Amino acid sequence: MSRVVHIPYTVAQDEDGVWCAHAYVGRTGCNGFGGTRDEAVADLKDAIVMVIEDDGAPEELAITVDVA
Q: What is the pTM of this model?
């Protein structure tokens, strides 16, 4: 079973022209970088997946619903 989880993030270009994306997964900060906005967001997605795989889903993302 898979589900979609929406995690708010920010993305900005630094003074060197590198795009930087940032989000929090629970209390853990995740970062993504790239030459374009899309590359930074894709890198951020990879970082988020890695954090969830390594640390497990934070409580606010691990809610389950039993349907009878």
A: 0.80
